Amino acid sequence: MPDISALKLDVVPEPTAPLGILPTIAAEKYPDTPFLSDTPWRTYDGPVRNFGEFARAIDDYADRLWAGGIRRGDVVAVVQRNHIEVEGVMCALGKIGALPALLSSAMETGELLECFARLENPYLLVDSFGLSRLVEHRHALRQLTRNVLCLEEAEENWVVPLQERIAHTADPRDEDEWFVITHSSGTTGAPKMAAHSTRSLFGMVAPMIMIFRDQYSPQDLNAKHLSFVHARTCAGTLASLETAMPALAIADPDPANVKRLMLEHRPTSIETHPNVYIQWESLAHDPDRPFRHVERFISTFDAMHPRTVRTLLGASEHPRAHYFQAYGQTESGPICLRIVTREESAAYSPRNVGHSGGGMEIRIVDENGVRQPANTPGFIETRSPGRMRGYVGGGPMPPEDAWWPMGDIGRLLDDGSLELLDRIVEHVDGVGSLLEKEDQLLEAMPELVELVLVKDEDDSSVFAVACPRPGTTPDPERFRAVAAEAGLPDLQVRFWEWEAMPVTGSYKVRRSVLRRKLAGRIQRTATARKEA
């Protein structure tokens, strides 16, 4: 396994400018650099195909926001469809010095309302999709928000359409001020809202920027299907602008659409969420070979299942095809980086998340905060240049040189790489690593596209939720036999369609929601079997 330190990431560069005005600077330097999307922009009238047109869209948004009364220091909650437009709106708000809070439209409406309350009377900026999610809560919005602004025409007379334009005054926040508020995935509870500055976003992608500058060329194209409100995407936009990296934003992850894009644009790099890659496995077997030009498959949200990594790398005909993995979180930015080549994929274990680099540091401690020796499991703590600047409604942040708890259990191996074992909140004594068990079960059952192990309500046992591949019929007896071989002989399973799974905007399974929905039914099933 290549050590990421070989990429010489020790010196972290500085950002060129605050992200609010970086698009203007990038457009002046590289106006024709491709900045593409698979579906047209709906909240901006002109085409957006390159840096120059992206900067013009941002100026248009800024003029409309200015006409709507947005000024420096205003907090603006943004709820839109998942499209690269959100990043343009973020930059426009940042250019006039407002503070955007990007909220996933995939959140439950109750969670969105809770976020508005925690933002303490923000403006609410929506498109037609965001408005459709919230229109039934007009009276709550009146209490929780300062005003509701819409980037498209709206029939509701209590919504202000942003169609007029007044020339804005650029007054961007500096590199160390809060620039954007995003939120955690909310897989184990209500999402937390974390603030980043331009500098901390830059720290998130500094290693990628250095790799871009060292290994990429203007002929490369970086395709991404991500949650466009995620801190990772905000940082990715910054990286593209800093390095003049051609980009293709994918809003529609349907395999048929992705196949069309792969054949038409031939990107050399592609990044998406692990659970989306699983849905794209079918494309790896397509006779048209849509992934044949891809050199880099990238994922920064969760480790990918070994089967998926092997399948993707086998679908590429590029001689240097590899999987690039990062381990981190919204609050910390990436902490570990790992490269897996086609040759190494046969022995790939997603539990090893690689090495630190680019100003990142890792230690393992026990419950008393005592550093643990190599190969000893404990709690993962980190220091990194991509660490957030604070939580909305939270207390003062610890000093930058303080260690940050990741909320995970792991161990450092003799070679300095990190082995991720479990999430603290999902750990069950005596079961071992739930993440490793999930990998074993999914590896043994190719008829499944996803499987998650969830703690029961008593926190002492687990149950499984398995998603069969479309067109297959689940076999409970086979599942029980495979689970027994994996050391889980009494594991109860619920088969569920993937489309019905409760997921976050980044397609992570919301385990806490699954627990509430299914724990009672699983428990009743288990009791009935024991009494039979």
From TrEMBL:
InterPro entries: AMP-binding_CS, AMP-dep_synth/lig_dom, ANL_N_sf. It comes from the Bacteria. Signal peptide: none annotated. Residues 26-391 form the AMP-dependent synthetase/ligase domain. This is AMP-binding protein. It comes from Streptomyces longisporus.
